[in-house]
Design brief:
Elements (H helix, E strand, L loop, with lengths): L1 H30 L5 H8 L3 H4 L1 H24 L1 H18 L6 H19 L2 H9 L4 H53 L20 H26 L7 H4 L6 H18 L1 H18 L5 H29 L5 H30 L1 H22 L16
Length: about 400
């Protein structure tokens, strides 16, 4: 047992940077168009809701592909699926700047969303197979931290590069960064033990309803706010340039820290209390953005980003830890399906709300979604602490 535990420690340390690199690559690509949505709207003569399809369509495609790819990974291997995912999505990213029309761009983005689903749908299940239950919360936190770093770098890279080179140059810069990260992940990702197959189809209980709801409703509110952020920051009275407006995505640094620390939060409070707290913080941050001063808007995005990523990390680890081993891949796929359906639907609907009714009504809509997520956790979440206290070294 001591030898097996020592091997898992070494494997965990190797897997962390590799999975984080895969997350950086995937989520930099997925959300790179977000800061240049105003430029896409101007170039292709679109309103905010139409331009947001560059985000909504690939996330919806990801949601539809995640369960089939999770099932395929049971046969082909989860490591192989992750490697395929990060390499193909990066190559599609390199081709995106060549899109001659917006419909072509959207089709290419849909294909990219399918490719990203290979990592997004199996990452947590791969880590559960690799590191075991005792280190899972910390490992998933590292993965989510990589995802948030990727989202931040993709948005910042595209936003700053769009100044001198336009939105096409911005997307090309992000694709080049993602290709480097995906090559590193493909080379260093450890092999996981083979997935045990059984004829008995394990059931996924109702205890997972709470994290599924958090995935859908939480990310719907989060993406809706960030989709509209570029328009709000560029409009009077703030009137920021695209490069300066993209600095709001530095808030993702707080998301990186909060997701990495989310395992400790769940250990101390229990999953149910940790999720409610994180969602309440997200809602409080979004309310701050209603205020006009720039510092209030920036502070609001920082707070809501920290809260959301903590909630996402706890919910993701909850699914991977509580699902039966035979159903772990399926449960992770369902969580990812809920997450990206919420992202696509919430992001597109939120952009439409902002375009027709303004920022204040967008905050009303997203706050209602977050409140519904909190109620679901309180009603469907476990009534006792479900997470055993983990050694401190897991989070070092």
């Amino acid at each position: 047992m001591a030898v097996i535990e020592a091997q898992r420690v070494v494997t965990t340390r190797r897997a962390g940077p590799a999975v984080a690199a895969a997350g950086v690559s995937s989520f930099a690509l997925l959300y790179a168009p977000q800061p240049v949505l105003p430029q896409l709207a101007a170039d292709f003569h679109l309103d905010p809701g139409g331009a947001s399809l560059a985000i909504g369509v690939p996330t919806a495609a990801l949601a539809m592909a995640v369960l089939p790819l999770a099932a395929l990974a049971e046969v082909a291997g989860r490591r192989r699926m992750i490697v395929w995912s990060v390499l193909v999505s990066a190559l599609i990213g390199l081709a995106l700047p060549l899109a001659p029309t917006f419909p072509v761009l959207v089709v290419m983005r849909a294909a990219q969303g399918v490719a990203v689903a290979g990592f997004a749908g199996v990452g947590a299940a791969y880590l559960a197979d690799l590191v075991g239950a005792s280190r899972l919360a910390g490992a998933v936190g590292v993965m989510i931290a990589g995802n948030s770093v990727g989202g931040m770098l993709g948005r910042l890279g595209a936003g700053f590069a769009a100044g001198p080179w336009g939105w096409r140059g911005g997307l090309l810069v992000v694709a080049g960064l993602s290709l480097l990260c995906s090559a590193y992940a493909a080379r260093t990702l450890p092999a996981a033990p083979p997935v045990s197959r059984t004829r008995e189809r394990a059931r996924i209980g109702t205890a997972l309803l709470a994290p599924f709801a958090v995935g859908a409703l939480g990310v719907g509110a989060f993406v809706a706010l960030y989709n509209a952020a570029g328009f709000r920051l560029a409009a009077p009275p703030l009137s920021l340039t695209p490069a300066v407006a993209s600095l709001v995505f530095l808030s993702y640094a707080l998301g990186t820290a909060s997701s990495a620390a989310a395992g400790r939060l769940a250990d101390r409070m229990g999953r149910r209390a940790a999720l409610v707290t994180a969602l309440a913080v997200t809602a409080a941050g979004s309310l701050l953005t209603v205020l006009d001063p720039l510092y209030a808007v920036v502070l609001g995005f920082a707070v809501l980003t920290a809260g959301f990523f903590a909630a996402h990390a706890v919910a993701n680890a909850w699914v991977a830890a509580q699902a039966p081993p035979a159903a772990r891949g399926r449960a992770a796929g369902i969580y990812t399906l809920c997450y990206y359906l919420g992202s696509g639907a919430g992001g597109t609907a939120g952009s439409a709300v902002y375009g027709h009714a303004g920022w204040s009504w967008l905050i009303v809509a997203t706050s209602a979604g977050l409140l519904l997520a909190i109620v679901t956790v309180l009603v469907a979440g476990p009534r006792r602490r479900a997470v055993a206290r983990a050694p401190r070294r897991e989070y070092a």
